[in-house]
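Summary for the lay section of the report: proteins are chains of building blocks that fold into shapes. Here we show the chain for D-malate dehydrogenase (decarboxylating) and then a coded description of the shape we predicted for it.
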Amino acid sequence: MTKTYDIAVIPGDGIGKEVMPEGVRALEAASQLFDFNLNLEYFDFACAEYYQQHGKMLPDDWFEQLEGFDALFFGAVGLPDVVPDHVSLWGSLLQFRRHFDQYVNLRPVKLMPGVASPLAGREPGDVDFLVVRENTEGEYSSIGGKMFEGTERETVIQETVMTRTGVDRILKYAFNLAQDRPEKHLTSATKSNGISITMPYWDERVKAMQSSYPEVDVDSYHIDILTANFVMHPDWFDIVVASNLFGDILSDLGPACTGTIGIAPSANINPEGTFPSLFEPVHGSAPDIAGQGIANPIGQIWSASLMLDHLGERDAAAAVLEAIESTLATGELTPDMGGSATTDSLGSAVVRALSA
Ligand code: NAI
Ligand code: MG
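The coded shape description reads as follows.
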C-alpha cells in the first residue's frame, strides 16, 4: 500500500512565505517519483499577522492541532518591527521544540558545488559533516536568579543542567549516526579543562557510550580549539556532537564555512517519534530582502530532504539532495551566492533536476 505522510506546513514570516512553496514543490515532485502520498495542511499561525490579529503567536490548542502530524515543515518566523524577536521566537518555534521534546538539533554542513567557500582553497568534498546539538538542557536552563539588584552586591547565577538521560540520549543519537556513515568518526565538543564539573561528566558519558559502539572512532576537542579547527581543518570532521551552547555556536560556524546561510537546513528531532519533528532552514525571515523574490530556497528544499530521510523515504531524500547539488553546479545561483537567479527559477531548476 502506498504510504501517506501528514505534514503540517507553517510558512511563518518574510521570506519564510517565499521559500516554503519551493520546498513544497520539491516534496511533491519527490512524492510522485518515489510513490508516496503527502497530505499537506497549512497553518497561518506563528507569524506577525497572526500576532496582530490575536495578540499571541499561537492558538491555545496548537499542541493538539499539531501533535498528530508525522512532521512539521517550517519556514521562518520574525518581523521585528511588528513583534519583538524574543516574543515571536519564544512564542512559537521554541514552544514546538520544547513541548514536542525535539532534543536533537541536527545541522548538515556540506560545501556545495558552485558555491564559494569563505575558506580559501576548499572544494566540495572537503567539507561534509553533521553537527548534532543537544536541544533541551545544558547551559540553557532557567535555574538561577538575581539577588541584591541595583546594589554593589548585585549577584546573578545561571546553572548548567546536565542529566544522565539528557546527555545519554543525544550521545546515542550521534553515535548511531556515526555508525551509519562510511567514516564512522565522532568528535565530541568539551571544555573539561575549564568547566570542571559538567564537562568532565559529559566526557565520562561519551566514554561510557563509546563502549557500545566499538566501530566508531571517537575524538574530543575543547571548544576553543574545535572552533579553530572548523576553519583550519574542516575535512577532519564527520559527526560532531555538542552540548546546547557549544552546539549552538558550532552549528552557525559550520554552515558559515560553506558560503551562505541561505542553503543551510536543520532538523529538530524527537527520535522516538512520540511527537512530530520539525524541519526548517537555518536562516530567519530576512526582512531586508523579503518581497523581492530573490531569497535562496535551497535551505528550505534541503530541509525537505532531511524530513524525507526522517520519515524513512531515504531514496527520495538522497535524490532531492542530489538535485540540489547538480542544480547549483550549473550556476543557477541566487544573489546571496553571487548569481542572478530568483527564488522561483532556482526552485524550478531543482524540481527539473529531480525529475530528470
Ligand atoms: P536572517 O537569517 O533572517 O538574515 C540574515 C542575513 O542573511 C540577511 O542579510 C538576509 O538577507 C540573509 N539571508 C537569510 N536567509 C537568506 C536566504 N534564504 N537567501 C538569501 N539571503 C538570506 O537573520 P536576522 O536578520 O538576524 O533575523 C531576521 C528575523 O528572522 C528576526 O526576526 C529573527 O528573530 C528571525 N529569525 C528566525 C529564525 C527562525 O525562524 N528559525 C532564525 C533566525 C532569525
Ligand atoms: Mg543560533
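Put simply, here is one thing we learned. The mean pLDDT is 96.
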